[in-house]
Automatic annotation (TrEMBL):
Record-given protein name: 3-hydroxyacyl-CoA dehydrogenase NAD-binding domain-containing protein
Involved pathway(s): Lipid metabolism; fatty acid beta-oxidation
Record SUPFAM superfamilies: 6-phosphogluconate dehydrogenase C-terminal domain-like, ClpP/crotonase, NAD(P)-binding Rossmann-fold domains
Catalytic reaction(s) noted: a (3S)-3-hydroxyacyl-CoA + NAD(+) = a 3-oxoacyl-CoA + NADH + H(+)
UniProt organism field: Asticcacaulis machinosus
């Protein structure tokens, strides 16, 4: 056996320590499943075996689930399937998808008590494995969690989770957990009834053995004649309400964009009406159906495979030595600068936080202290650890303290002259090898680099707000930025546990350049007379986190007016005003700045409660569409998504971004582009370039040249190309 270390102790308990060959984390490869099947068979046939304990031999976790790369690559399929025969191919796909259920069920029905000693992270198929065990003991370690997060990559639990969890904790609790992809900490898992015991990490195996020796029951709850579903099944009065309410709730949360959520509901509803063996087959059918959807394929590629590659620095130049950072300086102690200082100190790096005077610098450090206090109050950090992080931050107006910094991140107000001034002050204290990074969100890096005496060391490091929560960092190459500088910037971003994407210089770069058209299209609709409520409701229905108008409120209307003013100044006669732009400026002049002061497109109650659309919106543009039928709503959704996607295509044509993986990951992490699509480029590929171009031509005729497809798209459509086919590339990360 290659993937399990197996030992029969003196009490007849077979302790099986999971240790996947060649993997840093345990995952179920086909070989590992074969080994688990052999364990089940030995337990069933070997009289010396009185019970089985499943645990992990790895220190970093119990099991992260199925090996998706291997499973989706066809390694689980039986040999000799005639794929030209649709029925044979369907049977083969079912058999491959059923493999985990087949093995787990064999373990569950081996006739001997099986206990799981969960000594680390257990997710997806790892949690499904322990649900198939008769008893579950969980370690109380600080990083231990368990859950079924498959919905986050476009799937739902397909290894028995959709059937066992509802039978264990009830349909309502299970559906909420699975549809949200919720992870449970040890005490939460115990309170929910998912595990039987929570003990210290070094006691999990002994506790599992103790149960086998004293109470060991080899029959699962759902295999007992007297078993009843907690809370009732689909035809129980209480259970029926769960599914009626659940349908409405899931529709409200997902807007029908996620087939996985819909198929999960089907699998649970139908499966709970059947014995467990039949229910597992129902689950597999819906799982296979989900796996074949464009949404699942795109989400798995982007949110699993691409996220891993980009998160490891796929854009890093090969052959450049790794940089370790001892000190970083942050210029500007506002919310953005303070957030950057916080995440930098959290990674163990000393920070010099600079502002115009001591009071301003101290205010930034105070923001860091507030974040640390919140972490302590929520049990995420000890007071000593929080104080240690805070002690790494030195707040000062003294630029002399920058001396010795490996990196400077400038986060002052979006003004070219101001940024030039602080650049000169900082560079006077820096070594020749230090990197200067600007957190600008709109101004071209090559323009800002003109103030630098070392433009080859100058780079854009664009964070997203709030910095402590947003995972994306956009790294922007200037005309003269060196590969060594790029490598250092990526090393820094990885050190602070963020996800870097690399883009080339252009006003607004990639993220803001694609996001701004989303809010601008909302203004176009407003000016056309479409009711603001429709605009934002349709915006959320696309899968975006907010509608375009409420998103503008969140960003701050006065900031958007300033950005517009800077852009108009830079573009001069080429600048084309957006309908509604002047009206937003008037709102700002009248003191409506957005969420931050409680009034923008919406009014925000001071004492909490729900926001409400400002009545004055209808006075600026008369409403001509107060209700939208399904066809109209679909067209509005298409406008909001396609205007972003065509902008991304232009970015590829101009070389602003060159890797589809980074574009997709960046679009989801950076501004919340509809995750169901797999990202902004996956959306185009799933539509098909020819179909996409045809729709853009139609929309250009109706709404204007902002929808006009670039020549790149026309060329790709003529050749039947996809972005991943044309621009796909291997990692540039150094070995």
């Amino acid at each position: 056996m290659q993937n399990f270390k197996v030992e029969l102790d003196s009490d007849g308990i077979l302790v099986c320590a999971f240790d996947t060959v060649g993997k840093t984390m345990n995952t179920f490869t086909k070989a590992a499943l074969d080994d688990l099947m052999a364990i089940a068979e030995r337990a069933k046939t070997d009289g010396a075996v009185k019970g089985v304990v499943i645990t992990s031999a790895k220190s970093n976790g119990f099991c992260a689930g199925a090996d998706l790369e291997e499973m989706l690559g066809g390694a689980w399929e039986a040999e000799g399937i005639d794929k030209s025969d649709p029925e044979a191919e369907l049977k083969g796909a079912f058999a491959a998808a059923f493999e985990m259920n087949r093995v787990y069920r064999a373990l569950e029905t081996c006739g001997k008590p099986v206990a799981a000693a969960i000594n680390g992270l257990a997710l997806g198929g790892g949690t499904e494995l322990v649900l198939a065990c008769h008893y579950r003991v969980l370690s109380d370690g600080p990083k231990v969690q368990m859950g079924l997060p498959e919905v986050k990559i476009g799937l739902f639990p397909g290894g028995g989770g959709s059937q066992r969890l509802p039978r264990l904790i009830g349909a309502q609790a299970a559906l909420i957990a699975m549809s949200e992809g919720k992870n449970f900490k040890p005490k939460e898992a115990l309170a929910a009834g998912i595990v039987h015991e929570v003990v210290a990490d070094d006691q999990v195996v002994e506790a599992a053995k103790a149960w086998i020796k004293t109470k060991g029951d080899p029959v699962a709850l759902w295999d007992k004649k007297e078993f009843k579903i907690p809370g009732g099944g689909p035809y129980h009065p209480a259970g029926a309400q769960v599914f009626m309410m659940g349908n409405a709730l899931l529709r409200k949360q997902s807007y029908g964009n996620y087939p996985a959520v819909i198929n999960l509901m089907h699998a649970v509803y139908e499966g709970l009406q059947l014995p467990i063996d039949s229910a597992l087959k129902v689950e597999t059918r819906y799982f296979a159906k989900t796996l074949m959807t464009p949404q699942a394929k795109a989400m798995i590629r982007t949110l699993f495979f691409s996220m891993q590659a980009v998160g490891k620095g796929s854009g890093r130049p090969v052959g450049v030595p790794k940089t370790e950072f001892s000190q970083v300086a942050v210029l500007g102690a506002g919310m953005m600068g303070a957030g950057i200082a916080y995440v930098t100190a959290m990674s163990g790096i000393k920070v010099v936080l600079i502002d115009r005077d001591q009071a301003a610098a101290d205010k930034g450090k105070s923001h860091c202290e507030d974040l640390l206090k919140k972490a302590v109050s929520r049990g995420k950090m000890t007071q000593d650890k929080a104080q240690g992080v805070l002690d790494l931050i030195a707040a000062t107006p003294d630029y002399g303290l920058i001396k010795g910094s490996d990196l400077v991140v400038e986060a002052v107000f979006e003004n070219t002259e101001l940024k030039a001034g602080v650049t000169k002050l900082a560079e006077a204290e820096l070594a020749d090898t230090a990197v200067f990074g600007s957190n600008t969100s709109t101004i071209p890096i090559s323009l800002l680099a003109k103030a630098s005496v070392r433009p080859e060391n100058y780079i854009g490091i664009h964070f997203f707000s709030p910095v402590d929560k947003m995972m994306l960092v956009e790294i922007i190459m200037g005309e003269k930025t060196s590969d060594a500088t790029l490598a250092k910037a990526i090393d820094y971003v990885l050190k602070i546990k963020k996800t870097p994407i690399v883009v080339n210089d252009e006003r607004f770069f990639f993220a803001n350049r694609c996001f701004i058209p989303f809010t601008a299209e909302g203004l176009h609709m407003w000016a056309e007379g479409i009711a603001p409520a429709i605009i934002d409701n349709v915006g959320r229905a696309t899968g975006m986190p907010r509608g375009p108008l409420e998103m503008m409120d969140d960003v701050a209307l006065d900031l958007l007016v300033k950005i517009t003013s800077e852009t108009a100044k830079a573009e001069g006669a080429n600048y084309i005003p957006i309908p509604g732009e002047a009206e937003v400026a008037k709102m700002v002049a009248d003191g409506r700045l957005g969420r931050k002061n409680g009034k923008g497109f919406y009014d925000y109650p001071e004492a909490g409660g729900n926001k409400a659309l400002w009545a004055g919106t209808k006075d600026m543009f008369p409403v001509t569409m107060s209700e939208a039928d399904p066809a109209q709503a679909e067209e509005l959704k298409k406008r909001l998504l396609y205007i972003q996607a065509v902008t991304a295509a232009r970015c590829f044509e101009e070389g602003v971004i060159t890797d589809p993986r980074e574009a997709d990951v960046g679009s989801i992490l950076g501004w919340g582009f509809a995750p169901w699509s797999g990202g902004i480029i996956s959306l185009i590929d799933s539509i098909g370039t020819a179909t996409f171009v045809a729709e853009l031509d139609r929309m250009t005729g109706l709404y204007g040249d902002r929808f006009a497809p670039p020549q790149l798209l026309r060329d790709m459509a003529a050749k039947g190309e996809t972005f991943y086919g044309r621009f796909g590339k291997v990692d540039r990360k150094a070995a």
